[in-house]
Design brief:
The protein contains 9 helices and 7 strands. The protein has a 7-stranded parallel sheet with strand order 3-2-1-4-5-6-7, sandwiched between helices. It has a single domain (2-185, 220-246), classed as Rossmann fold (3-Layer(aba) Sandwich), CATH 3.40.50. It is globular. The chain has helices at 12-23, 37-46, 60-74, 102-129, 152-171, 190-196, 206-214, 221-232, 246-249, and strands spanning 2-7, 27-32, 50-54, 81-86, 134-139, 178-183, 243-245. It binds NADP nicotinamide-adenine-dinucleotide phosphate. NADP nicotinamide-adenine-dinucleotide phosphate binds next to helix 1 and helix 6.
């Protein structure tokens, strides 16, 4: 049996990736604060297991409990392969340094950096002990490699995830795991709504992002998920530790 642990499953890219795993007959363990009844129903129709772990990843106690629940669902006698899609993410705080809300920065780092690292840290030793290969996909952003006014926290957290991915790949090179970061480009999700609602004082380029929406330049999360599924369906072509960018993988 194959399992996919997907964080941020309630909407956006996480939901789209979950739908495509369900179509492939992969059992799902979804992690988010809110549930997604439609996914549950699709899984039932497809005859795959769907379990939801309700967890606020910004809360260290909830994360610790969540990790135990996730591994109890994933590792069974029949488990042959485990995907981990570290997708949950937040963009806030968008503001200039000196005006950042300390609590929002702390929660941001918990969700975007600490939770993905601790998820891998928890699941990997169990997988290695039982010789179960994993496909670890960390969702990153082009912001990791760019300097953007107002985005110091987000750029830093995504740069950290890229370096974590590279380090993990180096450490696990004797193992069979697939380890990569995936940069999805701009997508039409709630995260973009958060970005567009910024003030120009907090984020100088906000107008550029409002235009992207007006011009219909945001990709659907379904298309972005399709490109990811296609990428991981050819594991022999994947270079572990690398950041794969949607823009390099699609022509249109
Ligand atoms: N949208 C873009 O243009 C874009 C571009 C580049 C990279 N990305 C990256 O793509 C990934 C997915 O983004 P998206 O656009 O799909 O975002 P989204 O629509 O805002 O969805 C975010 C997901 O993360 C979950 N989440 C947020 N805070 C959480 C918390 N404290 N605990 C648990 N789950 C939490 C949300 O679930 P609940 O609210 O139910 O908890 C939701 O399912 C993120 O890593 C993002 O950085 C997005």
């Amino acid at each position: 049996m194959q399992y996919a642990v997907i964080t941020g499953i309630s909407r956006g890219l996480g939901e789209a990736v979950a739908k495509q795993f369900i179509e492939k007959g992969v059992n799902i363990i979804g992690v988010s604060r809110s549930e997604n009844d439609q996914l549950n129903a699709s899984a039932e129709d497809a005859g795959v297991r769907y379990s939801h772990v309700s967890c606020d990843l910004s809360d260290p106690e909830q994360l610790e409990e969540g990790l135990k629940a996730i591994s109890s669902y994933v590792f069974e006698e029949t488990t042959e392969y485990v995907y981990l899609i570290n997708n949950a993410g937040v963009v806030e705080p968008i503001d200039t340094v000196g005006r950042l809300n300390p609590e929002t920065v702390t929660k941001h780092m918990q969700v975007n950096v600490t939770a993905p690292i601790l998820l891998v840290n928890h699941l990997l030793p169990i997988a290695n002990k039982h010789h179960i290969p994993m496909g670890i996909i960390n969702i990153t952003s082009g912001a990791a490699e760019k300097t953007i006014h107002g985005w110091s926290t987000y750029s830093s957290s995504k740069a950290a995830i890229n370096r974590f991915t590279e380090t993990l790949a180096l450490e696990q090179k004797e193992q069979e795991h697939l380890i990569l970061a995936y940069s999805p480009g701009v997508m039409d999700t709630e995260m973009q709504e958060d970005i567009r609602s910024s003030s120009e004082e907090a984020f100088a380029d906000v107008e550029k992002f409002r235009k992207l929406k007006e011009e219909g330049s945001l990709r659907s999360p379904e298309k972005v998920a399709e490109v990811l599924m296609d990428l991981i369906s050819k594991p022999e072509q994947i270079e572990n530790g690398k950041v794969y960018k949607l823009y390099d993988l699609v022509k249109d």
